[in-house]
User: Fold these one by one.
Assistant:
Number 1:
Amino acid sequence: MARAPGLYSRVIAWAKIVLPLVALALLSTIFLLSDRREPMETVPFVEALQDGETTREGVSAPYYSGKTQRGDFLTMTATRVRPQSDGRVVADDLAAAVRLTDGSEILLDALSATLTDSTETALLEGGVRIRSSTGYTLDTDAMTTVLDRIEAETLGPVSGAGPLGTLEAGRMRIEASGTGGDVQLLFTEGVKLVYQPPKEGSSAE
């Protein structure tokens, strides 16, 4: 079949214009659909380790602050942090504070913490103390916590005291009940509570 005069050259000319535009549109779509990470997009203390010799030797007294996905404010300090060959960061004497959007606070203290950037998690070991402004003081051997949202769980038994008395449990989980919901301490796997009534004269008004 004969080709219309000039049709082929016109198609080529339009292709030279249209194809680059299509390619640009596809690239734009890829960037628009890519994961936009929250402000806390790197593991705490990594920036402090990105300077010369400190990468090998570690950094003393680092400080980190950031926000979770729901707007809770997180701060972390340690006596020292050291990078590991597998990309993780080990922090000695970690102290973390989470100020929740409702004004309450959760404090975590651990002898050692291993923070992993790829999963945005931390493993707290060597004895962990959990304190909350709602009146709980609890101890456990180790626990895991997520760095970009309120989610943590002990790896074994937890014991301590709360507003109602002393308690023991096989495990404890800290989580938020939905987006912007209350943060809850959930005790599971055999919970033992010894109720201690308020001392005379100390009841709330």
Note: Residues 16-41 have pLDDT under 50 and may be disordered.
Number 2:
Amino acid sequence: MSIEQEQMAAGSDPIVQVRREGDVAVVTMSYPERRNAFSMKMRLALTDVFQRLMHDDPDTRAIVLTGAGGHFCAGGDLSEMQEATPSLLALRERIAVGVRLFKLIYTGTKPVVAAVEGACCGAGLSLAAACDFVVSAETAKYSCAFGKVGLLPDTGILWTLPQKVGGGKARELMLKGDVIDAAEGRRIGLVSEIAASGCALDAAIAAASRFASYPPVTLALLKASLVNAGNSIEDACRLEIDLNPLTRQTNDHAEAVNAFMEKRKPVFTGA
């Protein structure tokens, strides 16, 4: 049974909703009364959904992550932080769940596109930065204001933000916690594409559908290369030598060449 079928059978309104657009799974954070805050329930639900989409759903070739109610994610759920402070072990597990989710998005085999409207703050920015491609509504707002609530940046952003915008700019955003708009996000490399307000999801699905049309094995190896090639020149060259021959031997590579020569659209199977 697919995730969508399970949700329909349960008859409830889950905090993370999944629907399909062809080869694209659209994952929606649905906690609009708190602007899709990154609560513990949200962390666990997102981790479960991404685990299954990345590893147990061959029909999904690309994923869109978005938020309900006109916002992406406003960051951590401060109402949870007003409760009694959990034990150190419980707090470590809370952070570890976010790390697992980050790794599923960032190192997973399928491309993930963020569709951002409204607030994208704190852990919301972490989620967007972990994605391969960010489509932003022109009215969206971004901030990395962990320090303002006495916390360190989490959910992988200590790695992803410097990768996206450079070390100096990432340091500035993390230290100052300033709010930036979509245009500035595009200028510094955080945002990949800007859409009109209310149109980010449609544009993100279009981008994800384009990625989903590529050979799945090549995409998986490309994501692995992008994750692991940035440590040194030797790592980049080693991955090129190790992984390129694998793509050359796939049926999808042969299909791509044949389709090009025959002036037709290729049909990729993931073999």
Note: The radius of gyration is 19 Å.
Number 3:
Amino acid sequence: MSTLSLNDIRVGYDDRGAGPALVLIHGHPFDRTMWRPQVEHFSQAGWRVIAPDLRGYGETTVVPGTTPLATFAADIAALLDQLGVAEVVLSGLSMGGQIALEFHRLFPHRLRGLVLADTFAQAETESGKESRNAMADRLLREGMDTYAEAVLTTMVSPANVRALPEVADHVLTMMRRTPPAGAAAALRGRAERPDYTDMLGHITVPTLVVVGANDEFTPVSDAEFMHARIPHATLSVIPDSAHLPNLERPAEFNAVLADFLAPLSQSQRV
């Protein structure tokens, strides 16, 4: 584990392997360890894999209040600046996918490719805003344990909770140890996120849209929505998985990602 100071916070991150840069953005309420199977695989397959803990999560400084997606994206850009990386393939899951879209909005020149996993592009609805802010209040009041137990079988399919207890335990542990103030700040920021729908048609870098077949949070229809609007995008549906196909079905997820990355594996600007 490494740390760097940037944008008035201390960021924890993994930086493994050598070659073109692949940056992995975790979802809520997780940390960079959700990408462990991908960090291990692709850092040994010719990629420099960078996986940061987002502001308020994991080893990175908690800043209470509201954390907009633009702040997360700026933190990632600042981390890349300090690491001397100019151009990346950026992969984000769930909230991480929305941060990847925001990164594209702010820093499109830094992208060589884009991976949008189990996420969606539309702005929040009014009821969704109320729900996210209410959940933020609840997490600050009650902590993470009750929430984590309630959503486990939506994050990971019930069948995989039974069949893959080590995965279920990892996911539950990540959620439980997330600082409530960090999670709440991200929820409030996501409630106010922009609508990326119109931007989808202007994405010109190679894009992979991937989703678990049984995802209830961001169903296949959300992935199809983005796939239909992003020029020349690739869509992959990972069977027998829910919201975290990279952990539930890592071999299948890695194979899909490897196929996508293969044409992008030539040397990037650094």
Note: The domain at 2-264 is CATH 3.40.50.1820 (Rossmann fold).
Number 4:
Amino acid sequence: MVFLKSVASVFLAVVLIFTSACTNVIFQPSHEQFIDPGQIGVPVDELFIKSGDAVLHGWHLPASAPIRGTVLFLHGNGQNVSAHLGATYWLPKHGFEVYMFDYRGYGQSTGTPDIDGVQKDAGNMLAWTARESCLHGHKLTVLGHSFGASLAIYATASYPQKQRLNGLISVSAFSDYREISRDALSRHWFTRLFKWPLSLTISNRYRPAAFISEISPLPVYILHSPDDTIVPAYHVDKLFAAALPPKYRVDLVGDHNDAFNPESNRRKLLDILHTLGKRTGACT
């Protein structure tokens, strides 16, 4: 009996350790400032907005050319906005102002990240930025990368005032929280042994593939590179199959974290932003 209790205790300890590791597959925040916008000549306005019990820090990158639209950028699961500035700093010179925020527990944002809280943050970022954009006469385009794109799918689908939005651009999104956890756990031989039971500890209530159809009638652009080693192509297949028209699939080049570096990828993104910016209708 004592032996069985010891085995059970060890098993419970292993489960707790690897459950924590599985959670860390999703949330990898940092408080370090990786890039100082001022030091690289990128003007930003500091922002702080309320999101439930957290205060979110963000940046507004004003357009440096005649304004053509407003973009909300939702970054991936690692580090913070200062590490993701490279994805957006080049958009203002093309006439697009950018808003980007950290989720709770990231960067200067308060709180501790968990899936419910971070999804709430994404929804509050969208609502705040759409309202701000509308006040200046522009509809908002939602742009998300990786984890941020998956958050953006649910946030856009559940946003009640879709007339304020141009549409969604999803870059390298995954379709399912448990499946992407299994993909990540499969990269190491030891965690591979436990990938199925551990993945079940991850909440799937905001599963992107289950909600992407609710973005319609807004356009959704699903961008992904065949060379992506982080998010396998089957996630994109599932998202595109589940989405309703108008929907578009666009191939990029490069690996997962290179999505906004190649000039060809930037041109494709700009073409989409210009297309979405031509959508008409009242922004109320």
Note: DSSP finds nine helices and ten strands in the chain.
